[in-house]
Amino acid sequence: MADRLALLLLCYDVLQLSGLLYLTGGLQNPFAMLFLAPVMIAAVSLTGTATLLLGMLVVAMASLLTIFHYPLPWLFGQPLALPVLYVAGIWIAIVLGTAFIGIYAARVADEARRLSDALAATELVLAREQHLTQLDGLAAAAAHELGTPLATITLVVKDLAKLLPSDREAAADVALLTQEVQRCRTILSKLASLGDGGGSMFDRMTLLHLVEEVVAPQRDFGVIIDIEKSGDGPEPICERNPGILYGLGNLVENAIDFAISDVCIVIRWGAEQVRLTIEDDGPGFTPEVLARMGDPYISTKGQDRRAKSEEGGLGLGLFIAKTLLERSGASVAISNRPLPTTGARVTVVWPRDFFEHTQINEASADGNTLIQAYIQGKARTEQ
Hints:
Heat Shock Protein 90, 11% strand, rod-shaped
């Protein structure tokens, strides 16, 4: 709407200038060069279509003024008659100047906008990487501090398991506590191994095996997890990457937390891309949360969470998962399933070359991938 109003205003300026030139000699008036000013303004600030329309109006008005105009006022009432060839040269100059200035100014403005978007994306990447680096240190400190009390809890739980008869009701709670303690130890070991690289031939796995390793610890929570796979050509094979395992594990865990009965993981691959989609049949994301999804300290876990804890999350899990996946070269898209179905949908897409060589390309992919995803997302929003 704003572009239309600006275009109408510039068209009015062209018509107003044409009226003045009509009364003062047409193209013989040296101020006819002012026709180029509205075209330059439109090329810098408006779309290409608007600039083209304004340029056509300028050419049409200049063509009419070569024939229809009052004489140019001159000294002592004597008319000034310029040669027709000279007037034709002025018309050609205006037409060529309109085309050149419109195209060149539009390209310069487009490059400036791209540079601005790239700088904004770079600042976003640096902020996210700085935040994640701080979290790396906090995670290492937390793993170190929690190691000792967790070992004490493990010993106490083992003693309780020996003292309580196996047929008592409390024995089931002790067994559950033992399972959760073991899960805590596993999580701490994952925190300690996020920065470790692969390199062993035994660390290579197919895409399905990667997903099965992520899903296996989540199958005992009363939610059905379906895995569908299809693709063109051989199944992708990647190195075992702790960052990818943690990121996908967090996404699957979130889907299970909010799912009513079913979580579906769809795996697709081709010669160029590897795509993984995680869907649940829960309530989905609210518009307020969806608008800031992936930012730190934005939590989706409230009172309706399926987990037994009544407290909400810190809002860091999805931020860390998304950043780790983007470090591996992936782009992460978060949305709701299309109506009339309900639930959330998270789509992770890797270029196949990045996915099959994540350990090699991870260090070089983090910034470029985030910058490209930011600029593409901004372009889609503007369209």
